[in-house]
Specification:
By secondary structure, this protein is an alpha/beta fold. It folds into two domains: 118 residues, Response regulator (Rossmann fold); 98 residues, Arc Repressor Mutant, subunit A, CATH 1.10.10.10. 44% of the residues lie in helices and 25% in strands. Strands 2-1-3-6-7 form a five-stranded parallel β-sheet, sandwiched between helices. The chain has a four-stranded antiparallel β-sheet with strand order 8-9-10-11, with no helix packed on it. A two-stranded antiparallel sheet has the order 4-5. The longest helix has 16 residues. The model has no long low-confidence stretch (mean pLDDT 84).
């Protein structure tokens, strides 16, 4: 389980983020700005720092600098439209930023993208001969290119990022809506899952990669 250090003043945001990230498979340790540097010094097992720029009891940039001393990836949480904070944070080495108010699904997507970048994992291989190059957004099956539409690829990435988890149809619709910004209804989702299976499964009528859990949703093991 990957461990995220959350430095944020607003209790409501801390509570909702900890609960949401836990559901998504992350462990979250929440501290104040003053505690953050000491926490980084005591514990080096964090995988990512999620940091509010504007802290009541400290400077977010100082915390960022400390994290970069431990080669820890950093995502800034900023006030909407605060361009100066964004530029300064990126200049200091922050890996990404997201403006408040943010959509939880978009934040999780950005967290996973940054973590993949730091892990050096750009190619994901799935039993059955399927390979996904996340840097080039390219999919191959036993060496042959698989031509996916943009939404089919996004749907595949949702399954890949949630391997082993049961995904309800409503959750899939929420993920695709938030990440893609496209309108997808329940009937359209059925069509895209069918098309994706036809392209990546050996036997689309008896899928082994994207499995249907009757009455509940889908799962990629």
């Amino acid at each position: 389980m990957q461990n995220i250090l959350l430095v944020e003043d607003e209790a409501a945001i801390v509570g909702s983020l900890r609960e949401y990230l836990s559901v998504e498979g992350f462990k979250t340790t929440a501290v104040s700005g003053q505690e953050a540097a000491e926490m980084l010094l005591r514990q080096s097992s964090f995988d990512l720092l999620l940091l509010d720029v504007s802290l009541a009891d400290g400077n977010g940039y100082d915390v960022c600098a400390a994290a970069k001393g431990y080669h820890l990836p950093v995502i800034f949480l900023t006030a909407s439209g605060d361009e100066n904070s964004v530029v300064k944070g990126l200049d200091m080495g922050a890996d990404d930023y997201i403006a408040k108010p943010f959509r939880p699904r978009e934040l999780v997507s950005r967290i996973r993208t940054v973590l993949r970048r730091y892990s050096g994992t750009q190619t994901v291989t799935i039993p059955g001969g399927l390979t996904v190059d996340t840097e080039k957004c390219a999919v191959t099956k036993r060496g042959a290119k698989v031509a996916l539409s943009a939404l089919e690829y996004r749907l595949l990435m949702v399954f890949l990022n949630n391997r082993g988890k049961l995904l309800s149809r409503s959750k899939l619709l929420e993920d695709i809506w938030d990440i893609a910004g496209d309108y997808v209804n329940d009937n359209t989702l059925t069509v895209y899952i069918k098309r994706l299976r036809e392209k990546i499964e050996d036997d689309p009528q008896n899928p082994a990669l994207i499995q249907t859990v009757r009455g509940m949703g889908y799962r990629m093991d």
